[in-house]
Amino acid sequence: MGIKAEVMMKALMKYEKGKHNFACRELPVPEPGKDDVLVKVAYGGICGTDIHIYHDTYPNEPPMVIGHEFSGTVVKLGENAGRFKAGDRVVAETNQYYCGVCELCKAGRFCLCNQRLALGQKTDGVFAEYAVIKESNLHVIGDHVSMKEAALAEPLSCVVHGVMERSNIEAGDIVLVTGPGPIGLLAVMTAAMQGAKVIVSGTSADADRLKLAEELGAFRTVNVMQEDLQAIVAEETGGKGVDVVLECSGVGAAISSGIDALKKLGIFTQIGLTGKSSQIETDKLCFKEIDYKGCLSKTNWSWNRTIRIINSGSLPLGKLISHEFSLDQWEEAMKHAEENIGNKVFFRIGGDA
């Protein structure tokens, strides 16, 4: 099975360095290399990284097609690509290239390789009708899973890494999630699935998202502009503080309040990127002997676990998706994502067909 007669495709790209410089253009349908697979893209999700690339505040190497969250269907295989077949429904990791020989790669931490080239950042991404993906990065999803929900696999894998690997959350833990954006809401679901009692904090602008957090498993939500977060944490923990903080907002005030809310010997996992320098009262880390952990991307383990979670249908992922746009509507889509209108913003590219 090959692609149809068309040789051109629609793609959203960053065409040169600098702020903005996005355009939806007609590009030739790419040919897969010998170790690659050509995928017809169904859906693509806008990530905070895409917004940073739009504003040129995150490393990027244009000209390139942007985007790294997606689902799609295999249509063509490279000569050495034999693990998949045309028609397979797939999602993919973002590591389009890594050295494979450094100590990080040998430990399976390809996302931390110094030579890593990521989809939609330093190589062509997936906000296009077709995308070339390294075969070793692909994962098959079940026929019963909607392509729309499957497109959340990549951000979910990041959260699974943060919640299960970096934070070691267990049943009975009391967890504070700061920032109820798409990543924060995925963290709520994943921590609750682990058996944790989850508190979620946000602002008045997050009113709808805080309500959704309750539907997704949060025990309690806190509007920090109207309620005293520290008093509520003290009430819920008997004055000890929460066991784990999952900081998903990337906002300095939330980082500071999260450290205050954490118990002695607690775990603080920074998932949200600030995009700028931020101040941390390091004395508090020392006095509480806090484990302050960074979380970037994911691992083989978290990807394998994520595919199992998605195939099981155990998380209501579809509730996170609030808006869909065509690639031609990219300006409106980016505005929604930038201004936190709704929840997760998607491009409907090929859809479920």
Q: In words, what does this structure look like?
A:
- The chain contains eleven helices and 18 strands.
- It has two domains: 8-140 and 316-348, Medium-chain alcohol dehydrogenases, catalytic domain (Quinone Oxidoreductase, Chain A, domain 1), CATH 3.90.180; 167-294, Rossmann fold (3-Layer(aba) Sandwich), CATH 3.40.50.720.
- The longest helix has 14 residues, at 153-166.
- The strands form four sheets. Strands 3, 5, 6, 9, 10, 17 and 18 form a seven-stranded mixed β-sheet that branches. Strands 13-12-11-14-15-16 form a six-stranded parallel β-sheet, sandwiched between helices. Strands 2-1-4 form a three-stranded antiparallel β-sheet, with no helix packed on it.
- 28% of the residues lie in helices and 27% in strands.
- α4 packs across α5.
- The chain is globular, with a radius of gyration of 20 Å.
- The model has no long low-confidence stretch (mean pLDDT 94).
- With 353 residues, the protein is α/β, with parallel strands linked by helices.
- β11, α5 (182-193) and β12 form a beta-alpha-beta unit.
Give the SSE layout.
Layout: E1 8-14, E2 22-28, E3 36-45, H1 48-54, E4 64-65, E5 69-77, E6 89-92, E7 95-97, H2 103-106, E8 117-118, E9 130-134, E10 138-140, H3 147-150, H4 153-166, E11 174-178, H5 182-193, E12 197-202, H6 207-215, E13 220-223, H7 229-237, E14 242-247, H8 252-261, E15 262-270, H9 282-288, E16 291-294, H10 300-312, E17 321-325, H11 330-338, E18 344-348
Parallel strand pairs: 11-12, 11-14, 12-13, 14-15, 15-16, 17-18
Antiparallel strand pairs: 1-2, 1-4, 3-5, 3-9, 3-18, 5-6, 6-10, 7-8
Helix pairs in contact: 4-5, 4-10
